[in-house]
C-alpha cells in the first residue's frame, strides 16, 4: 500500500491570493493594521506559523491562545468570500495536469491519497471545494495539527493507518509539494519527496534540498507514476540503492533520482541495445 500526500497551495490549486487577503482582513479587523502579509513570507509555512507572524507584525508582541483562536475564526469568516473573488476574477486555477493524475491514482487499489497541508482543516476544504478535488482525499494532516510540517504529514499517515486499518511503512509514503519546505519535511519524516515547480516555491531552494523527482507540473504523469513505482521505466532503469556513493557526482545524482552508477549504466546499455 502506498500513501501519497499532496500539499494544496501551488501543488493542487492556486487560490489567487485568497488566503493572503483573508488573513489581511482578519488582522485589520482586529487592530486596524493594513496589508500585514506584505511584511513576511507565507509560502511553505503552516497557517499556525503565518497567523503568529501576522499577529506579531501587527501588534509587536506574541499572541495569546485566545487571540490566535480569534484570528483563525476571522480568517475562516473571510476566506470563502475571497475564494469567490478569485474565481470571479479568474485567478483561481488548478495546477496543470493534476486532475488527470488524481483520477489515475483513484483507480489504483494499492494507493491511498491524502492531504499534507499547512492549511487549517476548514480552510483547506474551503480552498479545495471549487476544484472538485475533495472527493479524492480520504484523510489528511493539516496546519491545525502542528506548526511543524513534518509533524503535519506524520499525522496524515497516522490517519491513513486508521482509515486503511493497517500499518504504513515510511518507505510507502510519498509527499508532493511545491516548496523546499515540503521537501525538507518529507525527509525529516523519512518519506519520499517530490516537487512541482509550477507553484510558489523557489526553484533554487527546491533543487538545493534534492527532492527525488522535480517536474514543472503534472501534464506528463508518466514520470510521477514511475517515481511512485506504479509504472515501469520504459528505458528499463530501476531505482538503485547503496550505502556509500562512489563519487560526489554520483552522490548528487542519487539525491535527485535515486539511481547509483550501476542503475544509470544498466539503463544506458538497455537503451543502446546492449
Topology:
Elements: E1 2-6, E2 13-14, H1 18-31, H2 47-59, H3 65-88, E3 93-94, H4 98-106, E4 111-116, H5 121-128, E5 140-141, H6 149-164, E6 173-177, H7 180-189, E7 192-196, H8 203-208, E8 213-215, H9 222-227, H10 248-257, H11 261-271
Parallel strand pairs: 1-4, 1-6, 4-5, 6-7, 7-8
Antiparallel strand pairs: 2-3
> Level of helix content?
40-55%
Radius of gyration using CA atoms only: 20 Å
| Secondary-structure content class | alpha/beta
Strand content: 5-15%
Overall structural domain count: 3
Short recap of the structure:
The chain has about 270 residues and is of the alpha/beta class. The protein is built from eleven helices and eight strands.
Describe this structure in words.
The chain is of the alpha/beta class. It has 11 helices and 8 strands. Helix 8 (203-208) links the parallel strand 7 and strand 8. The radius of gyration is 20 Å and the shape is globular. The model is unreliable at 240-274 (pLDDT under 50).
Give short descriptive properties of this protein.
274 residues, alpha/beta, Rossmann fold, 3 domains, six-stranded parallel sheet, two-stranded antiparallel ribbon, disordered C terminus
Amino acid at each position: 500500500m502506498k500513501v501519497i500526500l499532496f500539499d494544496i497551495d501551488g501543488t493542487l490549486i492556486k487560490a489567487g491570493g485568497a488566503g493572503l487577503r483573508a488573513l489581511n482582513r482578519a488582522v485589520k479587523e482586529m487592530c486596524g493594521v493594513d496589508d500585514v502579509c506584505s511584511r513576511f513570507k507565507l509560502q511553505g509555512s503552516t497557517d499556525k506559523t503565518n497567523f503568529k507572524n501576522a499577529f506579531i507584525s501587527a501588534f509587536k508582541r506574541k499572541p495569546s491562545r485566545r487571540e490566535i483562536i480569534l484570528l483563525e475564526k476571522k480568517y475562516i469568516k473571510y476566506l470563502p468570500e475571497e475564494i469567490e473573488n478569485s474565481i470571479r476574477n479568474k485567478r483561481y486555477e488548478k495546477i496543470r495536469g493534476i486532475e488527470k493524475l488524481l483520477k489515475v491514482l483513484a483507480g489504483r487499489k494499492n494507493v491511498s491519497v491524502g492531504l499534507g497541508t499547512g492549511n487549517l482543516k476548514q480552510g483547506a476544504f474551503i480552498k479545495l471545494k471549487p476544484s472538485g478535488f475533495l472527493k479524492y482525499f480520504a484523510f489528511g494532516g493539516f496546519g491545525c495539527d502542528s506548526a511543524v510540517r513534518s509533524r503535519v504529514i506524520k499525522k496524515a499517515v497516522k490517519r491513513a493507518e486508521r482509515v486503511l486499518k493497517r500499518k504504513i511503512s515510511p518507505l510507502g509514503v510519498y509527499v508532493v509539494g511545491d516548496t523546499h519546505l515540503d521537501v525538507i519535511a518529507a525527509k525529516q519524516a523519512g518519506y519520499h519527496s517530490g516537487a512541482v515547480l509550477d507553484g510558489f516555491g523557489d526553484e533554487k531552494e527546491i533543487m538545493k534540498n534534492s527532492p527525488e523527482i522535480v517536474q514543472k507540473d503534472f501534464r506528463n504523469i508518466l514520470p510521477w507514476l514511475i517515481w511512485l513505482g506504479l509504472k515501469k521505466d520504459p528505458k528499463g532503469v530501476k531505482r538503485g540503492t547503496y550505502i556509500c556513493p562512489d563519487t560526489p557526482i554520483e552522490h548528487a545524482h542519487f539525491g535527485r533520482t535515486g539511481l547509483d552508477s550501476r542503475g544509470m549504466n544498466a539503463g544506458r546499455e538497455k537503451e543502446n541495445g546492449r
